[in-house]
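To whoever is on call:

I kicked off a structure prediction for a single chain this morning and the downstream step that reads the tokens threw a length-mismatch warning. I double-checked the sequence; it's 313 residues and nothing unusual in it as far as I can see. Pasting both halves so you can look.
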Amino acid sequence: NRMLAVTGVYLLGAVLTLVGIVLVIPTILFQLSQLIELTIKELPGLLQNSGAYLKPLETTLAKYDIHVGTDEMVSLLVSRLPQPDGPAIVAQMSGVAISTMTIAVYGLSVLLLTFYFLLDGKGMIDSVVKLSPAKYQSTVSDALSEIHHCLKAFFRGQIVLGLLFGVFMVVVYMLLGVEYALALGLFLGIWEIVPVIGPTIGFVPALVSVLFLGLANVGGNRLMEIIFLVIAFNICQWVKDNLVAPRYIGDAIGLHPVLVFIAIMIGARLDGILGIIVSLPVAGTLAVLFKYLTAGRQPKVEPVSPEDSAETQ
């Protein structure tokens, strides 16, 4: 029955989560800590070396009486870099623990609500429909059904795309010889859930890794390796957006690209990353409601009689 099916899905999810905690997450955390440590260690030297590349620019600008002290600029940047502070990190651990507990409570609440929705979601929708006047119940039912399909297609598509894209990029990173491929690929997959800007943000740590360590399986200088990685990422992104995404998401939200951009900006302004994630579903829901609210207010066009048509001619 439905109760056993829902319980089975939750048990399977719990087993997969436990396997991830035991086998995958420790490796990811170790690789991320190594990458952060490497970045803190190598970034000052990288900035110091960048002064040599800026010297030709400084010489060219000096010919036009524009004086730029590249050495001073680089030294200033290096001096402003944050230094790792052990006591400060330890002092912040309590805040991290509280934040983790808060997220855990929110996550448990979402799981419980999802459990009840899976068990009796249709009954809840029917109860909402019955609250509306009898002559509007059909319209309310159609609107709720369209909103349901819109949200289901969007969230299911984002999660599936994030999982597939993350695993795929782990393989791509390994083939190219990117250090910390597992952590970087799964990090990118998690950010894939965030619409529009998520993949770009998730790709940045891979660029940092290649900037410091290069690509083990690709020859050439460091700049060419970075360009090669960017090209590979854009090819994978194109395949995902044009061949895979239409299958799992399609035109789920049904919004014009300009409205999508506006919705994301409003969501980011209201609640940061979480606002960006929920901005498109909320905008899609509002679009459906607006369509049904204005459906009966369209101006009627009177039919043109043959006599009137003849007179106009």
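Update from on-call: the warning came from a stale cache, not from the record. Cleared it. Sanity check on the structure: Residues 133-296 form one domain.
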